[in-house]
Write a structure and sequence with these properties.
Largest sheet: 7 strands, mixed
Number of strands: 21
Strand content: 15-25%
Number of domains: 3
Oligomer: single chain
Radius of gyration: 24 Å
CATH class of the largest domain: Alpha Beta
Shape: globular
Structural class: alpha/beta
Helix content: 25-40%
CATH architecture of the largest domain: 3-Layer(bba) Sandwich
CATH topology of the largest domain: FAD/NAD(P)-binding domain
Length: about 450
């Protein structure tokens, strides 16, 4: 049978674009469909614009700290509309770059929603296209709970496009998106209350990191309330009235939910053509990203493996090399470094202490908490935290966790060490860069023996 394309990709986010580009470079005839904007969640309404807002929000602390270093900073003010306009210009620029990437790599772009008609056929608008292979890369979307008045709330999608800055903000959720946006709104001057229905933020992270960060963000003025959850939301003349499940009432100008994301698999024909989905709607795949239908693959957040942009890119490359490059390989999901752009930042790679103890039994723990050098002249109370987890028989470092300035930059290099299965002795033999937060990684010598 002759097909229109060798590969048709549904979803032009980071994973889909990388898979299409690499596949084309390997000789495949490739097309891709996108119903919104090329670039996906990360570029359009995720990592990139969020990081820009984090930068903006941190200037309030920088202005304060400058005085300790001899600077006289005059009266300051912030324009939310100008920030959003400048952010939008940058996103437009990146969107254009992604369009050029597809064009320059001979990938045909279809603007519109693609749905599967059968295992080799997709429909975009009134066009029907056939392909030998199909790749699902539709990502995920925020989930809003069934709470009375939820129509008055926003998700992270809408937070990037607010016309005016809310002075009182309630952020609901305890994951990294909730923590990051609580820091953004707080840094830009809002009164922020963060609500989380469980006992501590950042579920799935190392417990020491969770507890440490929770204390730090409260020091910065965020009102963190755990075991708290909205029961209903009402619009009033003064904004929003939020009644919690325990009966407490809060008032706000905006309430943002960051309580989870769901794979984008609804109404695109996956189950109809035989693709097996998990209970949460994610596409079930083999280690090499193949679905239950032999010519249909899936990468990125839609598979609910590790929902990180670089992972989606990694999976997209592995798919292309496997199917079109003659170099079969599965994406490696072990020791993937990640960061939370909270204030202060979190950087983490490898196992948490709880995971390490479950896997190995006994483990050696090294950790340090201290005031960063930058704070010594500012009167600031921000602390930093560093933790290493070591498997004692092999001496291999199996987990590393950092909370502090530039933690995201530091953890990238530490991730290389863990990928190489570096030992604690090799960490110890590495000369530290002084004075820096990062040197703590290689200077901790005493095992933690506390409870």
């Amino acid at each position: 049978m002759t097909f229109d394309y060798d590969l048709f990709v549904i979803g032009a986010g980071s994973g889909g674009v990388r898979a299409s580009r690499i596949s084309s470079s390997l000789g495949a005839r490739v097309a891709i469909a996108e119903e919104y904007r090329v670039g996906g969640t990360c570029v359009i309404r995720g990592c990139v614009p969020k990081k820009l807002l984090v930068y903006a929000s941190h200037f309030s602390e920088d202005f304060h700290d400058a005085e300790g270093y001899g600077w006289t900073v005059g009266e300051t003010s912030h324009s939310w509309p100008k920030l959003i306009a400048n952010k939008d210009k940058e996103i437009d620029r990146l969107n254009g770059i992604y369009h050029n990437i597809l064009k320059n790599n001979n990938v045909t772009l279809y603007n519109g929603r693609a749905t599967l008609l059968d295992k080799n056929t997709v429909k975009v608008g009134d066009q029907t296209i056939t392909a030998k292979y199909i790749l699902i890369a539709t990502g995920g979307t925020p989930v809003m709970p069934d709470v009375p008045g939820i129509e008055h709330a926003i998700s992270s999608n809408e937070a990037f496009h607010l016309e005016s800055f809310p002075k009182r903000v309630i952020v609901v959720g305890g994951g990294y998106i909730a923590v990051e946006f609580a820091g953004i709104f707080n840094g830009l001057g809002a009164e922020v209350t963060q609500l989380y229905r469980s006992t501590q933020i950042l579920r799935g992270f190392d417990d020491d990191v969770r507890n440490f960060l929770a204390a730090e963000i409260q020091k910065k003025g965020i009102q963190l309330r755990t075991n708290a959850n909205p029961a209903k939301i009402e619009k009033t003349d003064n904004g929003l009235k939020v009644t919690l499940e325990d009966g407490d009432v809060l008032e706000a100008d905006a309430i943002m939910y960051a309580t989870g994301r769901a794979p984008n698999t609804k109404d695109i024909g996956l189950e109809e053509v035989g693709v097996t989905l998990k209970e949460n709607g994610a596409v079930k795949v083999t280690p090499d990203s193949q679905t239950s239908v032999d010519n249909i693959y899936a990468v990125g957040d839609v598979t609910d493996r590790i929902a990180l942009t670089p992972v989606a890119i990694h999976e997209g490359m592995a798919f292309a090399e496997t199917v079109f490059g003659g170099r079969p390989r599965a994406a490696d999901h072990e020791n993937v470094p990640s960061a939370v752009f909270s204030q202060p930042q979190v950087g983490t790679v490898g196992l948490t202490e709880a995971e390490a103890r479950e896997k190995f039994g006994a483990v050696d723990i090294y950790k340090s908490q201290f005031r960063p050098m930058k704070m010594t002249l500012t009167g600031g109370t921000e602390q930093a935290f560093v933790k290493l987890i070591v498997e004692p028989k092999s001496d291999i470092v199996v987990g590393a966790h950092i909370v502090g300035g530039d933690a995201a930059e530091i953890i990238q290099a530490v991730g290389i060490a863990l990928k190489c299965k570096a030992t604690k002795a090799q960490f110890d033999a590495t000369v530290g860069v002084h004075p820096s937060l990062a040197e703590e990684i290689v200077t901790m010598r005493e095992k933690y023996t506390g409870g």
